[in-house]
Structures are given as C-alpha cells and as structure tokens.
Write a structure and sequence with these properties.
By secondary structure, the protein is mainly beta. The chain has one domain. It is 14% helix and 49% strand. It has 2 helices and 8 strands, in the order βαββββαβββ. Strands 1-8-5-4 form a 4-stranded mixed β-sheet. Strands 3-2-6-7 form a 4-stranded antiparallel β-sheet. β4 and β5 form a beta hairpin.
Length: 119
C-alpha cells in the first residue's frame, strides 16, 4: 500500500469556505482516479492530466485527517503507466492530485493508494 499526504486544491478549499460561510453540506470524497499524466501538481488543478480509470473511494477519518483509498488492478491499468492519482468529490470537484514515480502493473497485481487530507 502506498500512502501519500496531499494538499487540497484551491477549488475544493473554496467549496469548504463557501459551505462554512453559508451552511449546507460538502459533497463526499467519492472517487479515486488513476492517470498517466506527469504534469506537476498545483493547487490550481481542476482535472487530471490524463485519467484512464476511476474507482469508488473508501474513506476514513482519524482526528483531523481524512484518508481516501482506492485500488488499481493490473487488469484495469492495462498498458497504461500510472503517473498520477486524484480524488474527486461526488459533485465532480477535484479535491487533490498527486504525481507519482511511474508504475507499471502486471495483470495479476494490484496497487492500493491512500491519499491523506489534513484539515
């Protein structure tokens, strides 16, 4: 399992600020996306560079940290080289994105990724 700390995007931080100011509910962290893009992450990102697969997120909270996990199988990765991972809220907002060392998966393997957000 690979665990990676990540900073929330400005788009998601804006959504949090608006919700705190006006009340209401935040959309849940719903999807972990996997991609082949190598562009460095910035807080201004609003999309993955080259997404090729998405899975439902498994979320947990411990104190002020939310951990979002997803599993990419070698079959789902196919011929793609994994270079980026992102978390999307249920409304489609990119919450955060991380660029990784390139990883190729064999068909019988899988990789579990955890992205940790601190609030």
């Amino acid at each position: 399992m690979s665990t990676t700390a990540i900073a929330a995007t400005n788009a998601y931080r804006h959504k949090v600020a608006l919700t705190a100011a006006a009340g209401g509910a935040l959309p849940k962290a719903a999807w972990v996306a996997f991609g082949a893009g190598a562009r460095p992450y910035t807080l201004d990102d609003i999309a993955m560079e080259s997404e090729f697969f998405r899975v439902a997120a498994n979320n947990s909270v411990d104190g002020v940290q939310m951990t979002v996990a997803g599993v990419l199988t070698g079959i789902a990765a196919g011929a793609h080289v994994l270079r980026e991972v992102g978390v999307f809220a249920a409304d489609g907002t990119l919450m955060g994105r991380r660029v990784l060392t390139p990883k190729e998966l064999e068909p019988e393997t899988q990789l579990e990724i955890e992205l940790v957000f601190q609030y």
